[in-house]
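Q&A log
Question type: sequence-to-structure
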Amino acid sequence: MLKSLTIQNYALISRLEIDFSKGLSVITGETGAGKSIIVGALSLILGQRADAKSIKQGEDKCSIEGLFDISSYEGLQSFFFERELDYDTQNCILRREIWSSGKSRAFINDTPVNLNDLKDLGAFLIDIHSQHQNLLLSNNRFQLQVVDVLAGNKNLMDKYKDEYQNFLSIRKRLQELQEKAKTHSSEQDYLRFQFQQLKDAKLKEREQTELEKESETLIHIEEIKNGLHRIEHLLSDDEQGIVVALKYALNTAQSISKIYRSSDEIAERLQTAYLDLKDLMLEVNAQQEKLELDPERLQWINERLDLLYSLQQKHKLNSIESLIALRNQFEIQLQAIESYDEAIEKLQQQLSVSQNKMLQLAKELSETRKAAAVYLEKQLVEKVSVLGMPYMQFSCRIAGKEFPDSTGLDDVNFFFSANKNVELKPVAQTASGGEISRLMLGIKALIAGATALPTIIFDEIDAGVSGEIADKMGGIMHQMGNVMQVIVITHLPQIAARGDIQFFVYKDENNLLTETHIRQLSEEERIKEIAQMLSGIKLTEAAIENAKELLKK
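Response status: OK
Response body:
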């Protein structure tokens, strides 16, 4: 419930404070006095876009603050906790500040918030019904929302929306995977050829280095054998060979050891050298005998190296290890492509399960809507027919969709006729402005009993009506005030008289400026104000008596 509204430096208002109460509050005043300015200011703390032109002329900043009693509203605690805002079980303050520079700030309980947070919270607290909102009655989505509110199917609708989003998510993943599979399937033959070519090459790490060494050896085998032969000759020649010479030197050292002890060390070193070189001579001989020119082996090595070089050149790589890595990559890609079928089948199964669940929830929603449609048709005719449309006909028609969307399987369309024996047509095609106003009032009254919305504000919903019809509209709004806070801006005395309290908006004009003010009227002031609404500027006794009679109701 809105407890108070404080407005500073907004439009024609320097400072204005209004304290509201339960029940039905009416706001009256002359045309142009600023009644709708108050609604405009209130809209700002409910998250509407700000305009620096709204700031009072000559001022740099305006502010609007609303104090709300939220003690009877359940479910708000999670809103505050999710956004890490201070939570008071009794009161909540919404504030908006706007600067002439165009900058704007929003606050919830003195904590800065973004505009969406303000809008989301405001949607829980107040429903502002202005004349332009009557146009919503022609909107099929709004009509569906009305039926859903009366059906009380919010929990079911939340479940459906969750499953619908799950269905869309699975379908998107499936489509992406199918597209990827389609793209990759065209590459599959290419990848398989490349992979098979590398696989058939039977690549081994370090193979290229080893083959290059062996090729180098085989190409120069005669030169190598000649060199080894010369080494062997120098070591083993019977006349001038190094081994023969060392043997002779060793024998000499051993022969003088009896007379020259120091030659023992010389003999040992000569013995070591002799044995090493003799062993080396045998090794050189063995390598020389092992080396043979093998043209077939050389040809195979060259062909093998040509294959490795061509593969590296083809794939723009510089080592056999890189080719092995590429082969492994091709293999992984091929395995992924081959696994698409399995993954697609799995997603198709998930999609089928989700679709069945979604359709079941959509059918359950449809049942609740059909029941609510019957209730709406009966109750709306009862409420609105007394507002000057005794032969009114109304039908809430629900048509099925081929496939569900975000709201389910149902299209809702309100059909209306104000006259007996006249074909019903969509509301947008038949209802006049006054008829739309009365229909909306009836719908709002029905919704008021089905929702926990604490406050509703009607901004001249009485357009196009007068007299007894206005009196009955006032009666409906007064009944609504028994279960919620209702604030009505009106120019009709019949509605004004139905209020539990009445506010009067007026302009104070002088040579320097024009300002809008508001004050709560006493009983005597209400009589006078309603009488003037009945008779105009000239106040008559008949108008005063008529005003008293209206107030007695």
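Response note: The longest strand covers residues 393-405.
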